[in-house]
Specification:
The complex is a heterotrimer of chains A (545), B (249) and C (295). By secondary structure, chain A is mostly helical. Chain A is built from 19 helices and 10 strands. Chain C has a single domain, classed as Orthogonal Bundle (ABC transporter involved in vitamin B12 uptake, BtuC), CATH 1.10.3470. The chains are: A mainly alpha (545), B alpha/beta (249), C mainly alpha (295).
Chain lengths: 545, 249, 295
């Protein structure tokens, strides 16, 4: 390289100083720094805070919390806190689901007022069906999701209750208010019968068995003369509607009656899911049963309990069904009924009440409102169900959670694949380091070494060999300063075995009382030679780091 | 740098070339930016403590980790790259490139007989046609299997299972044999026997990597030993040298 | 009460053969892919229609129609695999999601069949000619004899293929240890297609054979699905031998019940039998342990 370094002290006439020396062109030390801090990969923001609306506080007044009557349970989970910046009192609703529930109840209550006149009867009818099916699905989701019993026989229990109630009402003239009770007794018997094999069988054996039971019921009902094989069902059960009112008010009354039924079942859901039974079952999800058992949870008994309670409720719903539809038909036991019910559960997400209700809403709207589509609407429902199952882990209401999990996975993947070579701290190491300055120091050190590596050239080494001590060109001076600045441990030194005759390279231990160690056997005859050997070693270490 | 182990092979063909490999499970990174070159005819030992990434390295080569990144060239063909899902989805394709992984613990098909089990290792059409001769070869390496050919594998003892598992890997024309802890869970004597059989296999144009916690089992038998520490390869030596340094310590 | 033993025996054997064909399909699918294929009924119905189309437009000779049914079944099996197995087989909760996905597929499929072919049922031409064989007092009619022979032949062929070929070895290996299977160069997805084509073909065969007595209609698949599933369940999911024994048991039971009590009690006695078996042996006659799949 043609660049020439002019020795500033050459004019002073110092002995053994050269006038000038060949050197390399100057490069800016900032370049490697820019190179180091430049992100090579797309960076994602790590740890975004969740957004909550902050309600203003109210000064010194005592805070009144709404509670469920006769309990200590709060209706809304509100956290009060001081804002660290403004030092003002703030309130945050941590769980906003009760608010949404109340809003949707209001919407359901008001819905009949806003229905278009031409569709009113269709919509009211669909609404009533929606409430009944939502109630059934709430029970079912409790069995499949909470209790973890993969039973497909829920519709069969409803059907049995409906058939029994309708039959008894028809033959013995039972009034409408006794039908749910009759149904619940039938449900209890059926529930116990179906729960028996559940104590022995596991997951899918049980699913297939219950599917078989549904088919068994269907074939029996179709062929049995007492249950109207000729008329296609049992009809003529006592209805809860008073006589002699217009069709529209009949529909409106049944809409609100079914709404109340759904509310009652929602309360039951909450009662099981939110209390001891639900907690026990949430401790024993699938494949963790052994662990739950080891901690003393009798999950088997809890499952059976839930199953029997829901069977009773399902039977009662069968009674409601019989009195709502004035009877029962074999379509309750058909494969399509099971499939549609499962579609409702799956679309909303198994195991959550909002999922069961929302899924029912979607399916009922498609099934009952767009009747003129014919078989296409079942195909549409099937498609929605298929897509939800293929792409969503927990139905529509699981999207948020699934997205968060996916984002977290991507974040940690990106963080851990950002590998930097050469002494910089790895991300895992960095998070565990207490002194965060160390991270910066290491990075700075790496940058320096990257820069200094570019300075190591033949010219520099030649220059050092010529005169290890004294004034040097700028790049060499930078190198030597860096070497001198290194910590004591493993720093090279020269020991004179015999002055002016033999020298040797040693390495300091860096610890008081621990002697230095000999690095190599080679003996240098002059001080200059030894100095240069140390320099070469350090250059070697630098290039290797 | 690399010890010239393949004295029988004149040209040093690269079997495996790993460059900048990082891999891990979930949010945890186990392998940190690892480079490794393996030449034909070499027998390499990887020594490291429990949990320092030996098995993860093998899994990453076979594409069975949760995620991985970095280049892995097997016989000159890229089998690595960046992948963040589907662990094991492409393993069979990697295996078909000439990899035989004998994993830790015995991944065996319990219901198949020993003979069928060995057959299952012959997945290329050529190997399938030639399976009788190959089985004979494996029986020469592991003579105790000869009597057990029609026994279901599920009934074998631990040592016999290990032999079956190793034999299955030898059935194909694998150019890279990865053996993960061959002596794990076996009685010391049987473990040594298995190790001896492994050492006697003629490598020819292929290479073998053995992961082991116990350095003493590898001593003086493999061409070079590489230490593995916290997901990085640390230090590398021919076995004689490693032997010496052990004595010094 | 006089029972026509010969008639009962022949009916039992016929039913056992057909149910065995169905159940072995269900069993193999479950144990090798971990998928409970609920769209088996849809496969069944579709291959009936496939056979009908073949007999209408190509040729109504027996073997061609049977072949048409089997091919349609295999095609539908491949379709089911592509939709309900490939996208989710390595995702969490695969078993439940696979079950639901195949149920959804069967919902879509049967409704599509209803949409395209209408609700009337179709009949297939007699496939095995019109002959009778008298074995002592027992008369073996053409459809039953043909069904027995064909299903035994096809089952033997399928099982022999599973025993001796490389593909069969792959399927069996994947049944035992899917993780190790990938280490010997067996691709889960590709093997999935083989398995589903094979079991779909078996369903197609059973469909054509059963159509000799029943009709082809969009919903004709439900009962065979339930029967096949319950036989597989009774025999223990995943066991070919168990499925055979269970098929014989169920076949005998069905023939006996139909003869003694009457047709509408068939399902009741059958389920009592199955529940009895399952309560005594919760994993069926020769059920394998689920632990093998978890490993």
């Amino acid at each position: 390289m043609a660049n020439l370094w002019k020795n500033p002290i050459a004019n002073w006439g110092v002995k053994e100083e050269v006038d000038n020396a060949p050197t390399i062109p100057w490069t800016s030390p900032i370049k490697p720094w820019i190179e180091t801090v430049k992100a090579k990969q797309k960076l994602y923001k790590v740890g975004r805070l969740r957004y909550y609306y902050k309600f203003p506080g109210h000064g010194a007044r005592t805070w009144h919390r709404w509670r469920y009557p006769f309990t200590r349970r709060r209706i809304l989970n509100i956290r009060g806190e001081y804002n660290a910046k403004s030092l003002r009192r703030e309130k945050t609703i941590l769980d906003r689901r009760p608010v949404y529930w109340v809003l949707s109840f209001l919407a359901m209550l008001m819905a009949p007022l806003f229905m278009p006149v031409s569709f009113e009867s269709t919509l009211l009818n669909a609404g009533a069906v929606f409430f009944i099916y939502a109630a059934i699905n709430l029970c079912w989701t409790l069995v499949i999701g909470t209790a973890g019993i993969f039973s497909l026989a829920s519709m069969a229990i409803v059907g049995a209750g409906a058939y029994g109630a309708a039959y008894l009402s028809l033959t013995h003239g039972l009034p409408w208010w006794s039908l749910p009770m009759v149904g619940s007794v039938i449900g209890l018997v059926f529930g116990i019968l179906i729960a028996l094999p559940a104590t022995r069988l596991e997951g899918f054996y049980y699913a297939l068995l219950t599917l078989g039971l549904v088919e068994l019921c269907r074939v029996y009902v179709i062929q049995s003369r007492t249950f109207g094989s000729a008329t296609g069902g049992v009809y003529g059960a006592d209805s809860y509607l008073p006589d002699g009112i217009s069709e529209l008010s009949e529909l409106t009354i049944s809409y609100y009656v079914c709404f109340v039924v759904m509310l009652v079942v929602l309360f039951m859901f909450r009662f099981i899911q939110g209390k001891r039974l639900g907690r026990i079952l949430r401790m024993a999800p699938e494949k963790r049963e052994a662990f739950a058992e080891a901690t003393g949870v009798n999950y088997r008994w809890a499952r059976i309990q839930v199953f029997i309670i829901t069977s009773v409720v399902l039977g009662a719903l069968g009674g409601v069904y019989a009195s709502h539809f004035h009877g029962a038909s074999p379509s309750l036991f058909s494969m399509d009924a099971v499939l549609l019910g499962l579609a409702m559960l799956v679309i909303g997400g198994i195991g959550r009440s909002e999922g069961a209700v929302f899924g029912t809403l979607v399916v009922v709207i498609i099934d009952k409102v767009f009747i003129e589509w014919g078989p296409l609407r079942l195909i549409l429902i099937g498609l929605i169900m298929l897509l939800v199952v293929l792409f969503l882990k927990g139905g529509v209401f699981g999207i948020k959670q699934q997205f968060r999990a996916w984002r977290n996975k991507k974040k940690s993947e990106n963080r851990s694949t950002r590998a930097e070579k050469g002494g910089e701290m790895l991300p895992e190491e960095a998070t565990e380091t207490h002194d965060k300055d160390q991270i910066f120091m290491r990075r700075f050190d790496k940058m320096q070494r990257d820069y200094l590596k570019t300075l190591v050239t033949e010219e520099i080494i030649e220059e050092h060999k010529r005169s290890p001590l004294g004034q040097h060109s700028e790049p060499l001076e930078r190198l030597l300063t860096y070497f001198r600045r290194q910590p004591q441990s493993d720093k090279y030194a020269i020991v004179a075995i015999e002055l002016y005759k033999s020298y040797r390279i040693i390495a300091m231990s860096g610890q008081r009382g621990v002697p230095p160690r000999v690095v190599e056997d080679k003996i240098y005859t002059s001080e200059t030679e030894a100095y240069h050997a140390v320099f070469m070693r350090r250059v070697q270490d630098l290039l290797e780091s | 740098m690399a010890f010239n182990g393949g004295s029988a092979v004149s040209e040093r063909r690269e079997i495996l070339n790993i460059n900048g490999l990082s891999a891990g499970w979930g949010p945890m990174r186990v392998i940190h930016d690892l480079d490794l070159v393996v030449y034909a005819g070499e027998r390499i030992g990887i020594v490291g403590l429990n949990g320092h990434g030996k098995s993860t390295l093998f899994s990453a080569i076979a594409g069975m980790t949760d995620w991985q990144r970095g280049s892995i060239k097997l016989n000159g063909k890229e089998v690595g790259g960046t992948r963040s899902q589907g662990p094991g989805r492409y393993t069979h394709l990697v295996v078909r490139q000439g990899l035989a992984l004998m994993p830790q613990g015995d991944e065996i098909f319990t219901g198949l007989t020993v003979e069928e089990h060995l057959d299952s290792g012959a997945f290329t059409p050529a190997a399938w046609r030639d399976r009788k001769a190959r089985k004979e070869k494996i029986l020469e390496i592991f003579p105790p299997l000869r009597k057990l050919m029609s026994t279901p594998v599920g009934r074998l003892s631990g040592g016999e299972r290990r032999m079956v598992s190793l034999g299955r890997g030898l059935m194909s024309d694998a150019s890279l044999l990865l053996v993960d802890e061959p002596s794990l869970g076996l009685a010391p004597k049987i473990g040594k026997g298995v190790m001896k059989a492994l050492m006697e296999i003629q490598l020819g144009n292929s290479a073998m990597i053995i992961a082991e916690q116990n350095m003493a089992l590898l001593e003086g038998q493999v061409d070079r030993v590489i230490g593995m520490h916290v997901g990085k390869l640390k230090g590398e030596a021919s076995t004689s040298l490693a032997h010496e340094s052990r004595r010094e310590v | 009460m006089d029972i026509d033993i010969g008639f009962v025996a022949i009916t039992a054997v016929t039913l056992a053969c057909i149910y065995g064909t169905l159940a072995i399909g269900v069993s193999i699918t479950w144990s090798s892919l971990g998928l409970i294929n609920m769209s088996y009924g849809f496969t069944f119905a579709t291959s009936g229609y496939g056979a009908w189309l073949v007999s209408e437009y190509i040729s109504s000779s027996g073997p061609v129609v049977i072949l048409g049914g089997i091919l349609t079944g295999a095609l539908v099996g491949v379709l089911v695999c592509a939709v309900a197995f490939i996208p989710i087989h390595d995702k969490p909760n695969f078993t439940v999601r696979g079950l639901i996905a195949s149920l959804a597929l069967s919902l879509i499929g049967t409704q599509a069949l209803l949409y395209f072919f209408g609700p009337q049922s179709k009949t297939l031409p007699p496939l095995f000619g019109d002959w009778e064989l008298e074995l002592g007092e027992v008369v073996l009619t053409a459809d039953k004899g043909g069904a027995i022979l064909t299903s035994i032949l096809m089952l033997t062929l399928a099982l022999w293929w599973m025993r001796s070929s490389r593909r069969g070895l792959e399927i069996r290996a994947m049944m035992m240890n899917p993780h190790a299977a990938s280490l010997v160069g067996i691709g889960v997805r590709r093997t999935g297609f083989y398995v589903m084509a094979l079991t779909g073909g078996l369903a197609g065969l059973a469909s054509v054979l059963l159509s000799q007595t029943y009709f082809v209609s969009p919903f004709s698949g439900v009962t065979p699905l339930i029967k096949g599933l319950s036989v597989a369940l009774c025999g223990g999911l995943g066991s070919v031998g168990g499925a055979m024994i269970a098929a014989v048991m169920i076949g005998v039971n069905e023939a006996l019940t139909a003869d003694i009590l009457g047709g509408q009690y068939i399902l009741i006695t059958q389920f009592l039998l199955i529940i009895l078996v399952l309560i005594i042996r919760p994993r069926g006659i020769a059920g394998i342990l689920d632990k093998q799949r978890e490993a």
